[in-house]
């Protein structure tokens, strides 16, 4: 491609953080923007369940109390939204996917891909290997406080090394499947994998 | 640029294109429309957005997303941008940029928050501030297509002077083709204002909008607190959550 046009008079104020931690095309924010495609669901913790599935078969299911009795992990990570904001040193608490698999009696993911299902019919797809070895969790706390509904509470997936739409809010079901299947935004033109360091925002990036 | 070869497998990458400012229109003291020439623009659907990328003389780049204000049928692509004080890109686009200036954009992006006349209605649009922009594209599309789908816009602004597209909206409402316009002004009202004066709430949504049994297609766009309140109110009235489509922006959407 030819040289991009210079936007006359634009100087910018630079991304505002260490370049080693701000992926290309991102800028630092200090607040926590909210983006969702529809209304924020109201979860009833009495009927809330988190389910692991191997294909269509449940292999693990936890009530809210059972889930909270599982070993908890704290994670401090940088997060990157495809709408170009990045937030550094965010602090989360929850249950790692490793812990969930172990609690379900599994030593490894039962299939190579995962379709993540949330309240409100939202889905997103993630390779199983991106969820294990401490890389991901189902988070219930942000900054030491229970996660706000508008930020995905009571529980959201956290996969911080991918663009943040992969960290599905209001997560309810992790379905392990043999063939990769695009989720909600992935069907609508967003990248199937979404690595912020390779700037994989949209299909074909 | 070489022609893009069509392949059955690899999705076509959204290419960065050069946009040239053809015209600048001040909509309000803080919002400005940029009418753009984009020679390779592939077309869009109402409600979609673009990513804009600015390049400084030293090579520094910044990119942000902005909603498209123009109808797909329009000859030029228009972005309407509200200047946000702390922002990095919006003060440039809505303040500095002038006729002949250039930047890059790519799109259209987004296939969910969209409306086309064949999707039907009734159409209930709920806007806060510059959240009107993608909804305006829908209303312009509806008008350009001579659609008679019933449409209602409930639009919350801080003051009368902050109403973006005020004259055009009044013109559309005056044409009497099934479009109803309702403003609410939350901070300042002109003398003699007889319209609504409070933030959007359930009672307002119920009296202004369509009943759930009409299954309206609902689009809500604005700052997060407004979208949260409106979406909750709509759901409480009994509208199906899957018919309520939302776009939120915050101070960092700049």
What does this molecule look like?
The complex is a heterodimer of chains A (205) and B (254). In chain A, strands 1, 4, 5, 8, 9 and 10 form a 6-stranded mixed sheet that branches. Chain A has a 5-stranded mixed sheet with strand order 3-2-11-6-7. Chain A contains 3 helices and 11 strands, in the order E-E-E-H-E-E-H-E-E-E-E-E-E-H. In chain A, strand 2 and strand 3 form a beta hairpin. Chain A has 205 residues and is mainly beta. Chain B folds into 2 domains: 17-109, Translation factors (Elongation Factor Tu (Ef-tu), domain 3, Beta Barrel), CATH 2.40.30.10; 117-249, Nucleotide-binding domain of ferredoxin-NADP reductase (FNR) module (Rossmann fold, 3-Layer(aba) Sandwich). Chain B is 20% helix and 31% strand. Chain B is built from 5 helices and 11 strands; from the N terminus they run βββββαββαβαβαβαβ. Chain B has helices at residues 90-96, 132-144, 166-174, 202-208, 224-237, and strands at 17-26, 31-37, 49-55, 61-67, 77-82, 102-109, 123-128, 151-157, 179-185, 217-223, 244-249. The longest helix of chain B has 14 residues, at 224-237. Chain B is globular and about 55 Å long. Chain B starts with 16 loop residues before the first strand and ends in a 5-residue tail after the last strand. At the A-B interface, loops of A face strand 3, strand 4, strand 6, helix 5 and strand 11 of B.
